[in-house]
Amino acid sequence: MHSTRADLPRQVRTKPVPADQLSTGKELLLSSVVSALSRRLQSLSEEDLAQIDPRQVAERAAALIPTSHPFAQLGPFYPTRAVTKWLGITRQALDQRVRARKMLGCPTADGGQRVYPVWQFTADGQAIAHLPAVLDTLHEGIDDPWTWATWLAAPVPGRFDGMPAHQWLAEGRDAEPVLTEARRTAGRLAR
After folding, report:
1. Number of independent structural domains in the chain
2. Are 130 and 175 in contact (CB under 8 A)?
3. Domain boundary among 17, 43, 67
4. For a FRET experiment, which of 103, 106, 163, 184 has its CA 20 to 30 Å from that of 128?
5. What are the pLDDT digits (tens) for 86-145?
């Protein structure tokens, strides 16, 4: 059984709230979606509406809403230029730090640039404590900066009080649990 316009909830048929009166991003998104759907529904005849499954339309529309990407926790990132300027070093010196695993630089898809997770830096631009040792350890299992960044940034229940490894290190906690887990991970990745 299909719904008609008369079956739509009253709030869907009302005029959307002006964007400047909305207090959250969710309210703005909802208002925008309702407005666009209302305009589209007005252009349809009753015969057209009878052919539409409202639940299916709603599910399709909802599927288009972006969700958090699993890699979102890896950033934000500094570009190379920002890091060289902040640290007062050349691109070559920065490249040497990355190659020596003193700092984490992740190559972009075009291969010409790197990005640097913000969380690896202290306020004065130094790498968080023990980061080079962790990177060296992970390198024994896989030579992939994105894997290292994911491992450092992903909180795992039951590990490091549920916080990401980089946060554990940045808070000055004992590095040995992080290094021990990095050794285990490297061993699994090396197989």
Report:
1. 2
2. yes
3. 67
4. 184
5. 999 999 999 999 999 999 999 988 777 899 999 999 999 999 999 999 999 999 999 999
